[in-house]
Amino acid sequence: MRKNLFTSKEKLKCNVLCKVVIMAFIFAGLLIPRFSLAQSGDQVKTDPDKKKADDNSTKPVEPTYPKAVGYLSFILPLATLQNNTLTRESETATSIGFPTGVNVLYSSKFGFSYEFTPTIKMTNTYSKMSNLLFDPGVMFRYKHGFTFIPRLAFETSGRYGVTPVFNEVYLRTKSVNYFVAFSVPMRWGEDDGVMAPFSIGLNLQIGFIFN
């Protein structure tokens, strides 16, 4: 009895620790842009020559295409609907992915994205890299930093499908642009050797793009 109680406490501590780590990633992603913006503002105040140069310029510099930019981010599954059952994140396990990729921009309205996402899965009994996702897709770019990316999806677990991504740049700096995205993964096929029914989910992604 005492042994089981001790095991339950250890599992609870592990689950809480996993959630704390994920929340730390979220808050770091939200706070970093504020510090960058504050530093950018300080540079403008202490560099009057740069301000004069900007005042003398009459036209903004147009980007040269094609252009390749890299990005880093992390992604959290929020919920998954499978076999008429809705599973919220952290009910049975806690997962976090780290999408990394390259966007090749051909114009201000169109591009192509190559993305790889390793995923770490944590439960009460283990922690491991559980999956690697390759999901390329075309980029339809709109005004105000909004981009729609319909991606194909190929997972090492055996699942495949499509992932519509709705991406918005919420802060621009000289070095990086910060973005937030919601994705809707739709999957078919086997899952680690076992045939699984169709699933649809909702993910939250936060990251930054190198300029």
Average predicted confidence as pLDDT: 82
Global structural class: alpha+beta
Report the helical percentage: 25-40%
Give the overall form: globular
Question: Beta-strand level of the residues, as a percent range?
Answer: over 45%
Task: Give the total of beta strands.
Answer: 13
Oligomeric state of shown chains: single chain
Architecture of the domain at 67-210, CATH level 2?
Beta Barrel
CATH topology of the domain at 67-210: Porin
Low-confidence stretches: 40-50
Largest sheet: 13 strands, antiparallel
**SSE string, helix = H, strand = E?**
HHEEEEEEEEEEEEE
CATH class of the domain at 67-210: Mainly Beta
Number of helix segments? 2
Cα radius of gyration in angstroms: 21 Å
What's the short story on this structure?
The protein is α+β, with helices and mostly antiparallel strands. It is built from two helices and 13 strands.
What does this structure look like?
The protein has 211 residues and is α+β, with helices and mostly antiparallel strands. It has a domain of 144 residues: Beta Barrel (Porin). It has two helices and 13 strands. Strands 1, 2, 3, 4, 5, 6, 7, 8, 9, 10, 11, 12 and 13 form a 13-stranded antiparallel sheet that branches. A hairpin with a 4-residue loop joins strand 5 and strand 6.
Give the secondary structure arrangement, pairings included:
Elements: H1 2-45, H2 48-56, E1 67-82, E2 85-88, E3 94-97, E4 100-105, E5 110-122, E6 127-134, E7 137-141, E8 146-155, E9 159-172, E10 176-183, E11 186-191, E12 194-195, E13 199-210
Antiparallel strand pairs: 1-2, 1-4, 1-13, 3-5, 4-5, 5-6, 5-7, 6-8, 7-8, 8-9, 9-10, 9-11, 10-13, 11-12, 11-13
